[in-house]
Amino acid sequence: MFEDTILILFISLCTAFASEAILYLLVYRTETYRRLKATVEKQSKKLEKKKELIGDRPTGQKASKKLEKAEEQLKNVSRDLNMVRMKSVVVIGFTFTALLGMFNTIFDGRVVAKLPFTPFGVLQGISHRNLMGTDPTDCSFIFLYILCTMSIRENVQKLLGFGPSRTASKIGGAGFFSPPQTK
């Protein structure tokens, strides 16, 4: 079981590096991506400076309009940057779905780890997928692979310098879990 866990960690690490290599070949080295990324960095720094200048003091309508316009420009450029990446992310998704199927058949029915907790509801269905037995702390390949990939891939991106900058992600944080803007 321990060997399977280490092997799954290694597989996850390899797939993370492979996906970043594919992204580098298809996206990161293109002029369009570099230009958009530089624009995002520049605009996010400008926006951060504007917000620092305004601070806590009450602002007039003109200043708030300028700030809204700068935020909107940053969101638009961030959206364009994400669209450049989207094409290759789809290719990577199909490739690694095929790999996931292959690895799933290799580890089918094997307990690869013991969880230190009892998963709830939906997680238990994923963590105990294709396993015989009734011990809910038994962990299947798919669950461990997903956890490893989620934790490793982000760190690999940061290590290689391809992750979003702190400034851009803090200010332009457009994503599924960003808080809604109040007006």
Low-confidence stretches are 172-183
Morphology call:
elongated
Number of E-state strands? 2
The fraction of residues assigned to DSSP E strands is under 5%
Largest β sheet strand count, sense and barrel closure:
2 strands, antiparallel
Strand order of the largest sheet: 1-2
| Helix-residue proportion | over 70%
Rounded to the nearest angstrom, the radius of gyration is: 21 Å
What's the N-to-C terminus distance? 54 Å
What would your notes on this structure say?
The chain is 71% helix and 2% strand. With 183 residues, the chain is mainly alpha-helical. Helix 1 (2-28) packs across helix 3, helix 1 (2-28) packs across helix 5 and helix 2 packs across helix 3. The model is unreliable at 172-183 (pLDDT under 50).
Architecture blueprint of SSEs:
Elements lengths: L1 H27 L2 H24 L6 H46 L6 E2 L6 H7 L10 E2 L1 H20 L5 H6 L12
Antiparallel strand pairs: 1-2
What are the salient characteristics of this protein?
disordered C terminus, 6 helices, 71% helix, 183 residues, mainly alpha
Task: Please provide a brief summary of the model.
The protein is mainly alpha-helical. 71% of the residues lie in helices and 2% in strands.
